[in-house]
Amino acid sequence: MALFLTLLALLLLATGLYHRYKPLPPGVGETWPWRPAQQVRFLADTHYQTPQGQPHTERQLMPALLALIHEARGEILLDNFLFNPDQADPAQHQPLANTLTDALIAKRQQQPPVTITLITDPINTLYSAHQPRHLARLQQAGVQLHITELRALRDGNPCWSAPWRLTASAFTPLTTTSPGGGWLPSPLGPHPVTLRALLALPNFKANHRKTLVVDGQQGLVCSMNIHDASSCHSNVGLAFRGPVAQDLARSEAAVLAFTRRGLRRKPRPSSLPHGQPPVTSLPRLRLLTEGAITEALLKIIHRARQGDQLRLALFYLSHRPLIQVLKGAHQRGVKIQLLLDPNRDAFGYQKNGIPNRPVAGELHRAGIHVRWYATRGEQFHSKLLLLDGHSHSDLLLGSANFTRRNLDNLNLESALQWQASPEETAITDARHWFHRLWHNQGADFTLDYPAYKDERRLRYWQYRFMEASGFSTF
Fold it and tell me: In terms of Cα–Cα distance, which of 58, 52, 43, 42 is closest to 378?
């Protein structure tokens, strides 16, 4: 018995270590070359309460996405994490999922030659336990639907994922596009789930990207989910025209490659071409995915010098290397403004403020200026960094929260880095957006640090354990 238990422990340990550090699928975690870009636009959805006490959302992202779809003449490639109407209140939320579904179906009907490819996360089928009506409608209209094969990715919660891979994983068809058979209550909404789905959920792994490519010429990368219950969230994005759209399409082709290949074939070396040679002059744009986002963030902050202005607008901040370089930048005289979601609300559930409140306390004690977004049931879902340096500005935004799960090659993520003069339009628009929120111009957008101050040591070490172990949803 002792020998059996020892062998079992070794098997679990080996499985956990391998899937935590195994090679990434080809094309994942890449820094794509700098490219020229045109018509770069900063876009934001901003939710707030008017001076009269009424909730209001200024929407730019969904109209821009629908306009790009309308302009398509040959191909639409869409990848979005949450794409469903679940958990919504029709009295306050917008029908994003059905609006996009209707637009894609209308495109197929009006222009049949246009090919439409939709990539999404298995959470939308409740890990093969539920077949959403809108996804079935899209398939019937000829849209190519692909549910991402998450098992090809590294495990962020190995203490759970190692035994799961040795048992339930073999019986969990995560990528099926014709799911069903749920019979147990779901923690994610009204639809019943299977036991296999419940066992897959604690892997806390996702295709978290939010991208759109049209005709290989135009693109959009943002933080917005096509999720009705998320329609009041504040989000940011960049729309553009240029060769980065082809890079974005190639990065999504890498996801399609390992999703279609499944788990039974040996991975092939990456053969993704990188197109035109990189540019060296400003302005310039590049695509970053997964861990490459981390490298770019750290380099931007390391490069900041005394007198530079660094602004961050974040839904989650927990990544330890980023926190350390932010402290170092402050010590060098970089002016830092950190705007955070208070981690109070999640689709009707009350949260405990982890990780942002303990992290805010740590950075506030270090002397960094912190403010909270004044959420009222929705989330400040932005993921944005803007550095105004002496010679140029860097704007980096996308799908990735600033956490271990999102930045350390665990989830699938995408971001854009736009490097331009401080007077360039997208840079100026992003700066004005942040300035408006920070200084409460026209409404009470943000609150001072004491509003959600939480400097309890137990709460801080709870965050540190959750971040390090993977036993967390952030």
Answer: 58
The rounded distance, in Å, linking the Cα atoms of 234 and 159 is: 34
C-alpha span between 381 and 369 (Å, rounded):
20
Token pair for residue 161? 């994922």
Cis peptide upstream of residue 355 (ω within 30 degrees of 0): yes
The pLDDT value recorded for residue 271 is 37
**Integer-rounded Cα radius of gyration of the chain:** 22
β-pairing, 115-120 vs 210-214, is: unpaired
Q: 3-class SS at 146?
A: strand
Bridge partner list, 286? 417
CATH class of this structure's domain 30-230: alpha beta
Q: What pairs with residue 415 in β-bridges?
A: 288, 398
Instruction: Work out the number of other CB atoms within 10 angstroms of the CB of residue 262.
Output: 11
- Per DSSP (E only), the strands in 242-400 are 284-289, 309-314, 335-340, 345-346, 349-350, 369-373, 383-388, 393-398
At 345, is the pLDDT very low, low, confident or very high (cuts 50, 70, 90)?
A: confident
Q: Is the pLDDT of residue 357 over 70?
A: yes
CA dist 252 and 250 (Å) reads 5
How far does CA 167 lie from the centroid of its chain? 29
Give the tens place of pLDDT for each residue, 408-421. 999 999 999 999 99
> Can you spell out the DSSP letters for 56-119?
EEE--HHHHHHHHHHH-SSEEEEEES-EE-TT--TTT---HHHHHHHHHHHHHHH-TT-EEEEE
**What is the DSSP code (8-state) at residue 442?**
S
- The CATH number of the structural domain formed by 279-469 is 3.30.870.10
Pairing status of strand 383-388 against strand 393-398: antiparallel
